[in-house]
Write a structure and sequence with these properties.
Layout lengths: L18 E5 L3 H7 L4 H22 L3 E8 L7 H17 L1 H7 L1 E6 L7 H13 L6 E9 L1 H17 L10 H5 L12 E4 L18 E4 L9 H13 L19
Parallel strand pairs: 1-2, 1-5, 2-4, 3-4, 5-6
The structure holds farnesyl diphosphate.
Amino acid sequence: MKSENPQETPLDPEKLPAHVAMIMDGNGRWAKKRLMNRVKGHEKGSQTVRSIVTAARELGIGMLTLYAFSTENWSRPRVEVKALMMLLKRFLVSERDELMGQGVRLNILGQKEKLPVDIQREAERTVQMTQNNQGMVLNLALSYGSRQEITAGVQTLAEKIKTGLIQPVDITEEMISDHLYTRKMPDPDLIIRTSGEFRLSNFMMWQAAYSELFVTNTLWPDFTKDEFIEILINFQERDRRFGKVKCSTSNDGSPQ
Ligand code: FPP
């Protein structure tokens, strides 16, 4: 989907990443800096989620994935987990009209069955309601962890081998991709992490094979559309070779 207002930014609409994924980090530090409770950081972070979803849609990004709750986040203090679930529920309910208005289709990636039943119900409603929207796909990674995702995929493949449906030699990279939460989705072209930490934190480890990575020191609650555009400009300036050499070099590697 192209931008509704492409002349608004210096971005080349032909070179936009098809799939941008974001590790939204730094809510806790944002709150701590202001001598506030961590939950306040998550509340402000939720507002950033809303503005970045709208920004991505306006900029013409086809797919946006937000790492909202990891498999490890269940180990946080109960009160924080509860607050995060409340914010997720609020988002799933209050943003329905907005998602419909913007033509955004929602998917949930992760262990849906581990989520509280009311969240499962609201998530399912929003997913159903938005399923025919064509504008942008928004993936919320909830109770998501790459290792769990790959483990579950391997278990399904092992079952298929056990029942004789496939042989071990039949397993291909495509088949593994098809057994992940992101089946049929493009790999992320760009993964942005806020708050200055240089790690993937169990996020899209299979899918990130050739993703461009961008780490900003900005804490998630302070992340803006303007900075998102700057990162997209940086992405468009990068030389993606996917492990190959440029066509403009000869077989011995010397420039043609
Ligand atoms: C990481 O910051 C952020 C999270 C674990 C949760 C992300 C949640 C939101 C942005 C709000 C709710 C989401 C939606 C989709 C409405 P952190 O708490 O680890 O920060 P810290 O590293 O500074 O402590």
